Amino acid sequence: MDKASEFAFWGRWSSRSESGGRTLHAHTFTGGARPVLGMTMANEPLRMARRLSRAMAAAAATGAFGIFYSSIWQMSHHLSTARLISIGAIAIAVMVGWLTTINRL
Questions:
Q1: Span 44-76, pLDDT tens digits
Q2: The pTM of the whole model exceeds 0.70
Q3: What is the 3-state secondary structure of the chain?
């Protein structure tokens, strides 16, 4: 099976006479989906969910605490906007640092 028939679904091949190279021209619809699907599969989403199960559990526990206890809502009411934004930024930085460290990135 040659390349032209192998990738017929994704686009068409054309030859350049001056350089002798070949170019794959993607279809409008499937041309964007192919790289996105390839990147998604390369990231192995099913294995990633298993690796992040502790983070998901912590996020669920935090969400449950915020829903069932009104103290977190009272705290957000009394703190200034700048302080709430800084707390959020620190929480995001700590989570990114933890994920980077735990996955040895």
A1: 888 877 777 888 888 888 888 777 777 777 878
A2: no
A3: CCHHHHCCCCEEEEECCCCCCEEEEECHHHHHHHHHHHHHHHCCHHHHHHHCHHHHHHHHHHHHHHHHCCHHHHHHHHCCHHHHHHHHHHHHHHHHHHHHHHCCC
